[in-house]
Design a protein that fits this description.
Helices cover about 60% and strands about 5% of the residues. It is mainly alpha-helical. A two-stranded antiparallel ribbon has the order 1-2. The longest helix has 21 residues, at about 125-145. The protein is elongated, with a radius of gyration of 40 Å. The N and C termini lie far apart (about 110 Å). About 15% of the residues are buried.
């Protein structure tokens, strides 16, 4: 057996017919014993791949519903076949075809597990998705419609929860791109990403809080405590006065002064002054009786 180059590729010139177990084993021995750069080894590899190409096609056929191109899967399958040829030991198996089939299938599974997933999914969920996909295809053909989750679970021998987990894994395998056009009369020219999310009011609140904090130190310490108790502690003015030992009226004046100061700092003095609420007039007798009880603390 001698290699001969035709159009840049190696082909075999065989004195006798290469078919049969003896001829096949001779090719395998050449692959496993000759140097890597040997032309005869390359020719033996090519002949064995030609003979066992049907194993690769059989394994790839299982993934015909996959979004992956068949040509790409065939290349992955050929890689598994080459590994099988290099590692085959006739003493451990009945034949190269039986040994190559799990090698090719395993190479395809590793390809899908490691390179096709856009989001990392546990291996158990990946295998569950593949099993449910096969059952769904057969049930769809048998029922003439898309099977329900319970029907899928009964046919696959799993729970409904497992079926839904497989569907979530399928979503991770086939994500929707944000720039995918959205069809619809009201969504003309829009993409999928433009329909997701919305305005977050917390962002404006964070910006305003940051601006407020930059002027916080300008307030006296007591006014800082009053603002914190009023707007963060949700305390009433009466409760604040009781805590600080001052009247509710005094708390109101201090609160107004603090808010006016912050408003002027934030608006550079362009804000309109805050309107005071009108107070009820009391009768002279009531005012006279109430005046001694009013706090005279300075603001």
């Amino acid at each position: 057996m001698h290699p001969r180059r035709w159009n840049g590729r190696f082909h075999l010139e065989v004195a006798g017919p290469p078919d049969g177990a003896a001829g096949e084993q001779a090719l395998i021995d050449q692959v496993q014993s000759l140097p890597v750069d040997s032309a005869q080894r390359a020719a033996a590899y090519e002949e064995l791949v030609r003979r066992y190409e049907f194993v690769v096609k059989s394994c790839v056929r299982r993934y015909r519903d996959s979004p992956e191109a068949e040509e790409d899967l065939m290349q992955v399958g050929y890689l598994g076949l080459l590994k099988a040829i290099s590692n085959y030991n006739p003493e451990l198996g009945p034949g190269l075809a039986a040994y190559a089939q799990p090698c090719v299938s395993g190479e395809l599974k590793r390809h899908f597990r490691d390179k096709r997933w856009q989001v990392r999914v546990q291996r158990a969920s990946q295998e569950l998705m593949l099993a449910v996909r096969g059952v769904r295809a057969s049930l769809t053909q048998e029922l003439g419609r898309a099977p329900r989750d319970r029907e899928l679970a009964e046919a696959a021998g799993i729970s409904v929860a497992d079926v839904r987990e497989a569907e979530r894994a399928e979503m991770a395998f086939r994500p929707r791109y944000l720039d995918t056009p959205v069809s619809g009369e009201d969504d003309e020219g829009m993409t999928f990403g433009e329909l997701l999310g919305g305005e977050d009011p917390g962002i404006d609140h964070a910006v305003e809080a940051d601006a407020l904090w930059s002027h916080w130190a300008a307030l006296p310490e007591r006014q800082q405590r009053i603002l914190a108790m009023r707007f963060y502690g949700n305390m009433t003015q009466a409760e604040i006065g009781s805590r600080l030992g001052i009247s509710q009226m005094h708390v109101s004046r201090l609160l107004d002064a603090a808010l006016n100061l912050l408003r002027d700092r934030l608006t550079d003095g362009t804000a309109r002054p805050r309107a005071r609420r009108a107070r009820r007039r009391r009768s002279s007798g009531a005012a006279t009786s109430a005046r001694p009880a009013m706090s005279c603390d300075a603001p």
